[in-house]
Design a protein that fits this description.
Layout lengths: L1 E6 L10 H10 L2 E8 L2 H13 L3 E5 L11 H10 L5 E10 L7 H18 L3 E6 L2 H10 L7 E3 L6 H9 L2 E5 L9 H9 L5 E3 L21 H12 L3 H16 L3
Parallel strand pairs: 1-2, 2-3, 3-4, 4-5, 5-6, 6-7, 7-8
Helix pairs in contact: 8-9
The structure holds zinc ion (2 copies).
Amino acid sequence: MLFDTHVHLNADQFHEDLTEVIDRARDEGIEYMVVVGFDRPTIKKAISLAEEYDFLYASVGWHPVDAVDMKEEDLEWLRELSAHPKVVALGEMGLDYYWDKSPKEIQQEVFRKQIRLAKEVGLPIIIHNREATSDIVEILREEKASEVGGIMHCFSGSPETAVQCLEMNFYISLGGPVTFKNAKKPKEVAEIVPLDKLLIETDCPYLAPHPYRGKRNEPAYVKLVAEQIAQIKGLSFEEVAEETTRNAKKVFGIN
Ligand SMILES: [Zn+2]
Ligand SMILES: [Zn+2]
């Protein structure tokens, strides 16, 4: 049993063969998946998929790259959706300094607003971070995000940053990059983060694990992430699968 905590089955890349992709995931033992929405169309699709399939849940948030497009009514919409029975988290939200569509100040403001909303409605948050680690950590601290906690998705930071995030009540989620031969930091992070604080994800269709690197990713491949973590930690695949599934159910409040 595996839990892929971050999928974009709502992406256009799955438009043609979504049913087959979902079937392959179920055949590989993926028990649950959280479909992450990050703008209006992907949020709508995440909700409809979560309504259609028992084993799919949704997370809704506003991506930092598009922060400049977020209006007050979008935040209100997120507030309404947070009451939906299949919405288990808010996000992805955070900071992305790689793309320059949205100025940093606007990204930070939109990030803070969503953290405050999560605290109001009592949902965990899913954090997206690209080249913005120190500002992310500072904002999480200032906004007391530890009250709701959540997930550092596709974590790519250092072991030191991982420890800071653990202290703030966040789980560390590892994806495809932990399987890359030249990925030093994710492997170190897998080694030092206790198993009861680790989650696994694909972030599909992006970041496919080795040996599919560069191809379209899909939830079935989350098994490769779990296998790699098991190897690094010297544990059995079953132990990693079982414990990361238990962690995911805990953070999302799924029985
Ligand atoms: Zn992301
Ligand atoms: Zn994502």
